[in-house]
């Protein structure tokens, strides 16, 4: 089945293609970056420290470390948690590859659990099935900004003495029963990539309950050195350093933090705008042959990072990939979040998994599409997205 979307007029001209996940960058961010360039502090320096303090305050956390990506945050959290080769780490099959790659980088063994068909988050029942004597950690991903069932996951972790590392790449603003995501587990890992809710271009942050764990992460993030660049070259005089372990080059730069400092100031404003768009999509698509996101669970706060539809080919008259092509022809950028991890050749070889090992994630991954959801969208942009969806559906067969 399919529709000829090329027989209908695009809702936007090509020169006004609506980029998926385009960030909002204001004059304050530009001025702060310019100030960094004039100051000479381009690498890790005072603005990184300031961004760490501000983010810690926002999350009501005491121990944080800024790094250059959420991938780095996940990797370093696993190392600080003491994972060893052969340890098993359970995570969701519905996530970006970085979640699983970080486990592999830590020389642990990823174990994939299927997802709940409503929340699209990791299913605690499936997690319980995957626990073995080798299991050391669980990495829940708060998919699209929706909080995982943390009570159930924490109970499993407590009963089996497991570490929880929260992947909060989608979930900066998310809350669960009055607690902020990233503060419920042993570690919380955040992304400030260009498509995220607040951005630094590239960047990440780690939260940890334990001060020593964050100190360890900060060392690992900068070659395993005992002093970072700011302390070595500051106005108090040169500080000798010692390399105390073999680390990585995962530090955040002041140029990145300069953007994040002002993005963080706008976080509630941006969240409210995305929430407004998310709810408008929900009402606008209520009578269309799609599965829309489930309502936000009680006692939680959804970060509204992604708005995902599930395409039912039989009902809609076209499959997901035809819908993607149709929206692109309408000059509307769309995304896929995500194909199941079990669909990718590398993981099939490395993890010895098959696509149908996680059937819910497989089905969702073959039907999902993400529509633009950004604080930078104006009302016309949002109407264009809605109209484009309807035009693709109404295209002649």
Account of the 3D structure:
By secondary structure, the protein is an alpha/beta fold. It has 2 domains: 5-24 and 267-394, Alpha-Beta Complex (Aspartate Aminotransferase, domain 1); 27-265, 3-Layer(aba) Sandwich (Aspartate Aminotransferase, domain 2), CATH 3.40.640. It has 15 helices and 13 strands. The chain has a 7-stranded mixed β-sheet with strand order 1-9-8-5-4-2-3, sandwiched between helices. It has a 3-stranded antiparallel β-sheet with strand order 7-6-11, with no helix packed on it. The termini are close together. The mean pLDDT is 95.
> Which CATH first-tier class of the largest domain would you pick?
Alpha Beta
Instruction: List SSEs in N-to-C order.
Output: HHEHEHEHEHEEEEEHHHHEEEHHHHEH
Query: Alpha-carbon distance between the termini?
Result: 8 Å
In one word, what is the shape? globular
Strand order of the largest sheet: 1-9-8-5-4-2-3
At CATH level 3, the topology of the largest domain is: Aspartate Aminotransferase, domain 2
Number of domains: 2
Let me know the number of strands.
Answer: 13
List descriptors:
397 residues, alpha/beta, Aspartate Aminotransferase, domain 1, Aspartate Aminotransferase, domain 2, 2 domains, 3-stranded antiparallel β-sheet, 39% helix, globular
């Amino acid at each position: 089945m399919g529709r000829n979307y090329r027989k209908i007029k695009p809702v936007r001209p090509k020169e006004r293609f609506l980029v998926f996940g385009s960030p909002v960058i204001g004059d304050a961010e530009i001025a702060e970056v310019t100030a960094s360039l004039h100051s000479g502090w381009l690498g890790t320096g005072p603005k990184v420290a300031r961004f760490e303090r501000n983010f810690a305050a926002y999350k009501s956390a005491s121990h944080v470390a800024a790094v250059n990506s959420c991938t780095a945050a996940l990797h370093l959290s696993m190392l600080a948690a003491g994972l060893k080769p052969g340890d098993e780490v359970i995570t969701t099959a519905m996530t970006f590859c970085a979640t699983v790659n970080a486990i592999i980088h830590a020389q642990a063994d990823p174990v994939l659990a299927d997802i709940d068909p409503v929340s699209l988050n990791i299913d605690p029942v499936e997690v319980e099935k995957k626990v073995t004597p080798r299991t050391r950690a669980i990495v829940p991903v708060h998919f699209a900004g929706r909080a995982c069932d943390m009570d159930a996951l924490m109970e499993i972790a407590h009963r089996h003495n497991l570490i929880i590392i929260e992947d909060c790449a989608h979930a900066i603003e998310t809350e669960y029963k009055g607690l902020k995501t990233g503060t419920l587990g042993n570690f919380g890992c955040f992304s400030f990539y260009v498509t995220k809710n607040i951005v630094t271009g590239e960047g990440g942050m780690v939260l940890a309950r334990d001060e020593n764990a964050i100190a360890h992460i900060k060392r690992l993030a900068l070659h395993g050195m005992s002093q970072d660049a700011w302390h070595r070259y500051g106005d108090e005089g040169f500080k000798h350093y010692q390399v105390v372990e073999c680390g990585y080059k995962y530090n955040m730069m002041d140029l990145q933090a300069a953007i994040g400092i002002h993005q963080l100031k706008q976080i509630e404003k941006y969240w409210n705008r995305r929430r407004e768009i998310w709810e408008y999509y929900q009402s606008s698509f209520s009578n269309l042959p799609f599965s829309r996101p489930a309502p936000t669970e009680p006692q939680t706060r959804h970060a509204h990072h992604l708005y995902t539809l599930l395409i039912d080919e039989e009902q809609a008259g076209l499959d997901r990939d035809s819908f993607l092509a149709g929206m692109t022809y309408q000059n509307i950028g769309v995304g896929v979040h995500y194909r199941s991890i079990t669909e990718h050749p590398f993981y099939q070889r490395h993890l010895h998994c098959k696509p149908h090992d996680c059937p819910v994630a497989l089905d969702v991954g073959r039907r999902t599409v993400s529509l633009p959801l950004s604080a930078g969208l104006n009302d016309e942009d949002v109407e264009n997205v809605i109209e484009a969806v309807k035009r693709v559906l109404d295209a002649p067969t």
